[in-house]
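Lab notebook, design round three. We kept the backbone fixed and only want residue identities now. Task for the bench partner: fill in a sequence for the structure below.
Input structure tokens:
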């Protein structure tokens, strides 16, 4: 797998994934998962990051955020959460060395229906893993907050989520999200499938959206070669991905051009 990418453009929703080193189950204890959530709450308080959803598994995390117009909010928040969780773990077990993989991956997600599918993918994580049979049975995730009206110690930004989904009020969100999860659970043959679009692509959305992200990355000098290709003809998703290059270890491609490629057989 290529090295994870972390790049941020203001004004977009980002799905962030971060894995423990060597995919070890360093978050297997509830205490450590709760610590990650606690520090996420602190990041929201300090940096005003808008959290749309999240889940903490035994060896990785999913975080869906809207970073606003300040491009430092997401990196600063991730630095705080990842750093403090690792520090507390090493102190408790009297060990040293990295806790996380060197990078977390960031995928830009278009609001609306694409955001809905990403949210469901996050909440169905532990169902796919066979740990629980419904997201409500996994307490270290945002599912409960999405369906609740609580305000104290709230991590998920309700207003930002409603705006991103184009909804009018929390009651509508509760009704619709419960229905979407029920529909996902009904697709038992497919619920174990891992969709790499949400964890490896640079952007997921319509063709126009992925081209927009591509153009902005190019204008900011984030210059590895990229290709856009349809990921699923049925739902119309497009992905912006980094093209593989066999000479990447020889040449510095940061100043290379961006390329759009289409697989005509999938159109």
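Proposed sequence:
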């Amino acid at each position: 797998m290529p090295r994870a990418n972390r790049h941020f453009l203001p004004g977009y929703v980002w799905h962030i994934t971060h894995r423990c080193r060597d995919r070890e189950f360093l978050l297997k204890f509830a205490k450590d998962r709760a610590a990650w959530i606690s520090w996420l709450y602190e990041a929201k308080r300090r940096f005003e990051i808008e959290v749309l959803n999240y889940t903490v598994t035994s060896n990785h995390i999913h975080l869906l955020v809207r970073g606003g117009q300040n491009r430092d909010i997401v990196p600063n928040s991730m630095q705080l959460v990842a750093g403090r969780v690792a520090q507390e773990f090493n102190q408790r077990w009297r060990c040293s060395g990295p806790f996380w993989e060197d990078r977390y991956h960031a995928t830009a997600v278009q609001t609306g229906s694409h955001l809905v599918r990403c949210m469901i993918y996050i909440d169905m994580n532990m169902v796919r893993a066979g740990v629980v049979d419904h997201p409500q049975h996994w307490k270290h995730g945002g599912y409960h907050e999405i369906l609740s009206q609580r305000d104290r110690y709230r991590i998920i930004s309700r207003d930002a989520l409603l705006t991103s989904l184009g909804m009018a009020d929390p009651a509508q969100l509760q009704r619709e999200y419960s229905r979407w999860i029920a529909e996902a659970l009904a697709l038992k043959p497919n619920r174990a499938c891992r969709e790499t679009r949400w964890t490896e692509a640079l952007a997921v959305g319509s063709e126009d959206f992925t081209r927009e992200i591509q153009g902005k990355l190019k204008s900011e000098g984030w210059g590895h070669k990229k290709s856009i290709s349809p990921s699923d003809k049925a739902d119309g998703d497009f992905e912006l991905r980094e093209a593989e290059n066999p000479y990447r270890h020889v040449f510095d491609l940061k100043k290379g051009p961006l390329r759009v490629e289409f697989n005509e057989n999938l159109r």
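Keep this in mind before ordering anything: The two ends are 26 Å apart (CA to CA).
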